[in-house]
Amino acid sequence: MIRLKTGLEGRKTQFGVIQNRLEECGYHLGGNWDYHTGFFDRVLNREEGETIYIRAPFDVIAGMLDQDNASIQFKTPYIIKHVVNIGFDSEENSLLTSTFNQFQEPLDKDGRIPDKSKWQEIGVREVNRLLAILE
């Protein structure tokens, strides 16, 4: 994981407004949200079984996340790499199984990121795009 020092931390906005704008730019609400916290993810790179994301976590400071008018406050963004298991699912007996099971757990949810300075630069540039969307 690479934490990014940017101007995003502490910024406030309404969930419904920013969600629509971010989705247009390739961000998606992460699946592990609850009513009081969540994060927006965007794929930066995907090769074979490795995906590098930028993640913009936030807290809900008023309302609940399933409401468009909920107020959110961003926390420190970071770069993360997931390594998924490409291959046959040992639990599956079918000969029709593809080589990738989307429901398998990642082999590594926080894989080592080579060339950290490169990804840090890319991440800061991406957060600057996100900040422009907030304006």
UniProtKB/TrEMBL annotation:
Record InterPro entries: Uncharacterised_YugN-like, YugN-like_sf
Top-level lineage group: Bacteria
Protein's recorded name: YugN-like family protein
Natural source organism: Sporosarcina gallistercoris
